[in-house]
Amino acid sequence: MKIYSAPMQGVTGWPFRMTHLKHYGGVDRYYMPFISVHQTRAMKGGEKRDMDPAHNEMSCMVPQLLPAGAEDTLFYMEMIRSAGYDEVSLNLGCPARTVVTKGKGAGILEDTGKLDEFLEHLFTGMEAEACGGAGSRLLEGAQSEARSACETSQSGRSGLRVTIKTRIGMNSTDQIDELIRIYNRYPIAEVQVHARLGKDAYNGIPDKEAFRRFYDGIIHPVCYNGDICSIEDFRKLHEEFPDLSAVMIGRGLVADPMLAEKIQADLNPDMQQGHIQSGHTQPGHTQSGHTQPSRVQSEHERLIRFHDDLCNAWYECYGQEHPTICRMLEIWDYLGASFPGNERKVRKIRKARDLQTYRQLAGEVLNQDYCPGAKSGSFPVGH
Ligand SMILES: Cc1cc2nc3c(=O)[nH]c(=O)nc-3n(C[C@H](O)[C@H](O)[C@H](O)COP(=O)(O)O)c2cc1C
Questions:
Q1: What are the sequence ranges of the domains in the chain?
Q2: Is CATH 3.20.20.370 correct for 2-267?
Q3: Using CA atoms, how far apart are residues 48 and 53, in angstroms rounded to an integer?
């Protein structure tokens, strides 16, 4: 069972990912916030910086695309592959109205014909590129032969594994059987299911019954996502769905950055907590030369150091105080739940206009009793 850090736009940019990797173990893969596919085939400066190999630990960080047309998506996928990544995540779950109304993100789940056509073109195009760049000819012609050739391996021949991050539907669960049928037709490396409808965004509780239909019906590895905030949440899920390939954790990992490490310790009781590292780094000598957390540091001390380093990393990224504070405030939407009884103090952090004030106000909260994690469903909604 693998543990993934979920992509969160505005929260899990490269400073978060690299700082988390430096301070905590347990995460096997960090998924990057999405890059939008455009007909112009251009990327914003921030998107380029976020997937820049210099800012990432390539072996465990995965770029994500918010796909549009198949041809344009293939272009971005080739950029990702040639940058040296081995996986791309396709976002079929974004619930933002501006995205959904264009038939993108979770919007594409409404139109299963369009989804099937998109995936057909995509996997055919991947195979064609791997066979010498004859993409357009193949797209017009022998699609099914190309696809079945591609099915010989989960990564096709291009070396890029394609994972899909999906919802259980857009407006209802009526399409689940059709979605399963479509996903099963293509060589998808893993189907990662956020167990909510697109229309519910982040509201309500995940629909485990609907998720079970994916779990039972999908022939690819299946990853669960939604409201894992504690070891207890994880244990319950693991009992219900013992054959999951992975769980993906978003807000729960920001509220308790040690959560993945705790889960790995629960799964591997022989390994010492505090020394369970990502499957891609070796204790004591990581690929990026990171120092490992010391055995003597308490969980609370580790959080404070993580927070301080994260603030420095965002400042290094922007070189300006205002955007640094904005990024840190996003963290507090979730981390605040780990300091119960300090809601007023947490709200006060929002008044900070310069970094010195921010550090002082955040420090006041960080020095209070730390109760890592949050109860499921207690996170603010509205992103
Ligand atoms: C602020 C925010 C930003 C998000 N950005 C992305 C994103 O860029 N790509 C994506 O696939 N999902 C995104 N998500 C969804 C999360 O990856 C995840 O599916 C969702 O939060 C449910 O998991 P959780 O309960 O563990 O947080 C975002 C969620 C939030 C709250």
A1: 2-267, 299-366
A2: no
A3: 10
Tokens matching residue 216 = 């039972």
Q: How far apart are CA 156 and CA 123, in angstroms?
A: 8
Mean pLDDT of the 189-193 span: 98
Residue 383, token pair as written in the block: 């992103």
Residue identifier of the C-alpha nearest atom 10 of ligand 1? 7
Q: Which two tokens stand for residue 31?
A: 């998924």
Least confident of 100-109, 216-225, 284-293, 361-370: 284-293
Distance 6 CA to ligand 1 centre (A): 6
- The Cα angle at residue 195 between residues 191 and 201, in degrees rounded to 5: 115
Which ligand 1 atom is nearest residue 227's CA? 25
Cα gap 259→255, rounded to integer Å: 9
Q: Which of 329, 307, 309 is nearest to 383 (CA)?
A: 329
d(CA 200, CA 382): 11
Residue pair 161/192 in contact by the 8 Å Cβ criterion: no
* 319 membership: H or E segment, kind and range: none
**Which pair of structure tokens corresponds to residue 379?**
């996170």
Query: Could you tell me the pTM of the whole model?
Result: 0.89
